[in-house]
């Protein structure tokens, strides 16, 4: 069923017609009364038949209104009303002179109403009914069948049959002409409304589609009015900044991104991208990339698109580190081997001379220093080779919980852990595919780094958790595949790391301490990376540092 033909729409139009009917009846009653009161020559006429008809119209309208809520078939109900209205109009025409009456125009009003309610078909029905009722009334009046006592206006001269036929034919032609024309216009109006409704539906669909696209796009999008106030804020913008639209609506852009709008910056150059730092509510520092385009005057004078580049910055830093390590590794491996051989010769020669020569205490001490320093250099070169190119040693499925627990026990009994409380919160049996020696080296270096930061006072907490992450997989039909990984965290309560130094802690030979080679964390990063994992660090000055080692889980991870 079309919208215009629905019961609700028909009921609404029917109510309007009923109200119009009452208004016309009351107007007709008022005009009749005024004529009777003011015109002496007409005051002796019998207007009571007209009053009776007006009362009947009012009563029928009341009955229609009472039945309206109970009617199930509105079309049939409308046809009944149209028929009754035509009968009442016929009575009005008769009592106002019959063939001499000028109120045949009331038929046209009923036909127009029927056409509005029931389209062209209803109009033609009303025209046909009006023609029949009007023709029968004229015939009965012409032949004197109807009593003249009910007429308000009547003539002593009997009309000619030719006049009756002409009047009837003219009015019937007018009835059907009006029905056809109004029906045609009604059909055109309905078609136009349907097309408009379809266009509105399409527009709403496109608007909704556009809204969905904007809301689901991964980039943050916001619009500014000419005064620089925020007028829209999509979901991605909320996810990136942590602010909802209600928090920033109609606020100045400076309240969210201070100094973003600056005539001295590139903000006003359309199409140019630039970057700004942004601090989230929890204090996290983000790197955001912005681009600006001009919108239309009004609520969207400027459209600002921005993305969170923090992860890409990290990837760039990681790529820079990998490239540097690759170049450094290729160069240093050969040098390390060349240095190692002379060191071995020096150490061996000194030990032979020490055993064969008769030396005093000073010479013996000097030779011991040479041997000790050659051993230290050899250890340094070994660590450097491990960093530059981790050995391709055999990997096996191992319980990393047991391995790390063993390293905790050993480290707890070492001199480096003196005065430090080590808390073991490892849970379950967590399995990875790795080389036990290299993974053990990773956590030993992390424990040693934490102990050096604590300087004999504080605690180290080691905890574990299993998480899942998704990767694109051809085996999953091009969709995402969920994988498990083991996360082991080593957290200390030390002084933390300077934020300016934090990006460089995994660089070789970089150290935040006044001693050490600066290879400990670089080796950690290199080994974990070679096992397909990664190391994350979070540090707050004065509140400690947390290193998180993420490694792919192997097989079933038991949590009990």
Overview of the structural elements:
The protein folds into 4 domains: 3-196, no CATH class; 220-308, 2-Layer Sandwich (Beta-Lactamase), CATH 3.30.450; 319-388; 396-552, Histidine kinase-like ATPase, C-terminal domain (Heat Shock Protein 90, 2-Layer Sandwich), CATH 3.30.565.10. It contains 13 helices and 12 strands. The chain has helices at residues 7-38, 48-68, 74-95, 105-142, 161-216, 235-241, 245-248, 253-256, 310-356, 361-388, 400-412, 436-454, 520-530; strands spanning 220-224, 230-233, 273-279, 285-294, 302-308, 396-399, 420-425, 431-434, 458-472, 480-492, 534-540, 544-552. The protein has a 5-stranded antiparallel beta sheet. It has a 5-stranded mixed beta sheet with strand order 7-9-10-12-11, with helices on one face. β9 (458-472) and β10 (480-492) form a beta hairpin. α4 runs antiparallel to α5, α9 packs antiparallel against α10 (361-388) and α11 packs across α12 (436-454). Residues 263-267 and 556-560 have low confidence and may be disordered.
What is the gyration radius calculated from CA atoms?
49 Å
Percent range of helical residues: 40-55%
Total domain modules:
4
Main beta sheet strand tally, sense and closure: 5 strands, antiparallel
Mean pLDDT: 76
Task: Trace the largest sheet across and list its strands.
Answer: 2-1-5-4-3
Strand content: 15-25%
N-end to C-end Cα span: 64 Å
The counted number of beta strands is 12
| Class of secondary structure makeup | alpha+beta
H/I helix tally: 13
| Model regions low in confidence, pLDDT < 50 over at least 5 residues | 263-267, 556-560
């Amino acid at each position: 069923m079309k919208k215009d033909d629905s019961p609700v729409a028909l009921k609404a139009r029917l109510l309007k017609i009923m109200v119009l009917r009452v208004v016309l009846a009351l107007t007709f009653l008022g005009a009749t009364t005024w004529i009777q009161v003011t015109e002496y020559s007409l005051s002796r006429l019998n207007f009571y038949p007209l009053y009776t008809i007006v009362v009947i119209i009012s009563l029928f309208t009341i009955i229609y209104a009472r039945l309206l809520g109970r009617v199930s078939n509105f079309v049939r109900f409308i046809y009944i009303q149209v028929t009754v209205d035509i009968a009442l109009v016929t009575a009005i025409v008769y009592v106002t002179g019959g063939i001499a009456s000028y109120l045949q125009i009331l038929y046209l009003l009923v036909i127009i109403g029927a056409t509005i309610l029931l389209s062209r078909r209803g109009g033609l029905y009303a025209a046909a009914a009006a023609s029949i009722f009007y023709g029968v009334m004229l015939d009965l009046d012409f032949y004197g069948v109807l009593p003249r006592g009910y007429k308000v206006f009547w003539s002593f001269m009997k009309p000619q049959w030719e006049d009756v036929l002409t009047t009837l034919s003219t009015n019937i032609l007018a009835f059907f002409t009006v029905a056809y024309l109004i029906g045609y216009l009604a059909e055109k109006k309905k078609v136009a409304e349907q097309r408009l409704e379809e266009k509105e539906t399409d527009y709403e669909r496109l608007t909704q589609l556009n809204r969905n696209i904007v809301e689901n796009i991964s980039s943050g999008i916001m619009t500014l009015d000419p005064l620089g106030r925020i007028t829209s804020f999509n979901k991605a913008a909320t996810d990136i900044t942590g602010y909802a639209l209600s928090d920033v609506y109609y606020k100045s852009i400076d309240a969210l991104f201070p100094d973003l709008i600056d005539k001295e910056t590139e903000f006003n150059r359309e199409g140019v991208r630039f970057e700004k730092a942004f601090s989230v509510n929890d204090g996290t520092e983000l790197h955001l990339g912005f681009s600006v385009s001009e919108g239309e005057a009004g609520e969207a004078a400027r459209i600002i698109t921005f993305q969170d580049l923090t992860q890409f910055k990290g990837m760039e830093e990681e790529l820079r580190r990998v490239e540097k390590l690759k170049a450094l590794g290729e160069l240093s491996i050969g040098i390390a081997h060349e240095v190692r051989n002379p060191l071995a010769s020096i150490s061996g020669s000194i030990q032979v001379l020490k055993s064969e020569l008769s030396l005093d205490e000073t010479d013996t001490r000097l030779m011991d220093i040479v041997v000790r320093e050659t051993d230290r250099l050899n250890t340094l070169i070994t660590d450097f080779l491990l960093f530059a190119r981790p050995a391709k040693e055999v990997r096996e499925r191992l319980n990393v919980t047991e391995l790390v627990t063993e390293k905790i026990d050993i480290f707890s009994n070492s001199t480096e852990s003196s005065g430090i409380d080590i808390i073991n919160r490892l849970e379950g049996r967590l399995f990875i595919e790795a080389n036990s020696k290299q993974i053990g080296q990773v956590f030993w270096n992390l424990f040693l780094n934490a102990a050096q930061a604590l300087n004999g006072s504080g605690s180290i907490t080691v905890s574990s958790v299993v998480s899942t992450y998704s990767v694109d997989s051809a085996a999953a039909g091009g969709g995402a595949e969920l994988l498990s990984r083991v996360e082991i965290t080593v957290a200390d309560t030390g002084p933390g790391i300077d934020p300016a130094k934090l990006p460089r802690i995994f660089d070789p030979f970089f150290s935040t301490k006044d001693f050490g080679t600066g290879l400990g964390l670089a080796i950690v990063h290199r080994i974990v990376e070679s096992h397909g994992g990664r190391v994350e660090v979070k540090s707050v000055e004065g509140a400690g540092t947390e290193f998180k080692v993420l490694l792919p889980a192997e097989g079933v991870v038991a949590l009990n």
